[in-house]
Amino acid sequence: MIKIIEKKVLRGANIYSYKPAIVMTIDLGEYDEVFTNKIEGFVDKLLETIPSLEDHRCSEGVKGGLITRMREGTLLGHVIEHIALELQYIAYMDVGFGKTVSADVPGTYNVIFSYWVEKAGIYAGTEAVEIVNSLLSGKAYDLEATIYDLKDIRDDHYLGPSTAAIVQEAEHRGISVLRLDDYNLVQLGEGKYQQRIQAAITSNTSLIGVEAAGNKRLTKIMLEDAGIPVPRGTVVQKQESAIEDAEWLGYPVVIKPHDGHHGKGVTTNISTEEDLVNAFARAKAVSNKVIVEQYLTGNDYRMLVVGGKFVAAAKRKPAEVIGDGAHTITELIDLENQNPDRGLGHENVITRRPTKTSWTWYRGWDTNAACLSSMWWVIDETRTFGRSAA
Question: How far apart are CA 229 and CA 280, in angstroms?
Fold first, then answer.
């Protein structure tokens, strides 16, 4: 069987490519100098396992080029290289560079391939060897489980949509890209020409701008001074003060952390003191100061401005399921996740909804109140919701 001797990560431009790459040294063992056209049924079995390999052009420069090479005969190290790339590509990580060269010891080879998420690249290389070994030994291989794991790794470490868009444009212009951490800190270019970005913040973004945007109260003051309508609200530190101010403002209200992002600790449409107490605790866990303000209805949009010009917008909607009287909330979420427009993370137009130990928005007919209602529920709830089947 083929063995992995060593795995190295080249972060940044290297002797093989200007892109980051994994160098995986493998020992072909008994399959050294054994070409794919001499391994009975290998090519067909590989295509049954990963049909999309047929798109690889390889050195032939045309679709199906890799298959042609394999049928004519190539070494398994070359095949492992292409599988490692394809596994990442199937998991929505756009990689393309690959190369396989002889290592110092006879029978060993350096399999080099690009990656976007370091952990995912290493995992893809390891599984590429496992796939080949499974085919050689006649064992079944669960490709779907591997792709799911790769997507899971990607979602933990992949660039956000704004950062990814900047990086893609840099690559389109031939600018080298180097990730400086597992998240959104990225270096564009080299030497004295390099620039750094973190999410949508660039080297030219002012500290004052960032601090102001992160301070919700200050942001409201600046918007109000500019003549932009904002909801009335107060900043408190104690629960008792939050209750008093909510009564003064009039229910429904919104509770949110004074300093925060991504909607963490934010609760909207609070109509009772009991709900306010719970919401205050969630916000307090994020920030020492808490904002209590009017609840205003309307649409929520995220807008992108580049070079002083508006270029795109996304309408943001809370996750929801509509009860039908026949399914539990978990079942309703599973059904909705079958929507082909949904995917993991940012791989598709809309994201899949979580199905374990988190909160989701439920809208439908409340079987207890027999009226249309909107509320938050823990989604592992096993009750059936929606219009009564009777």
Answer: 25
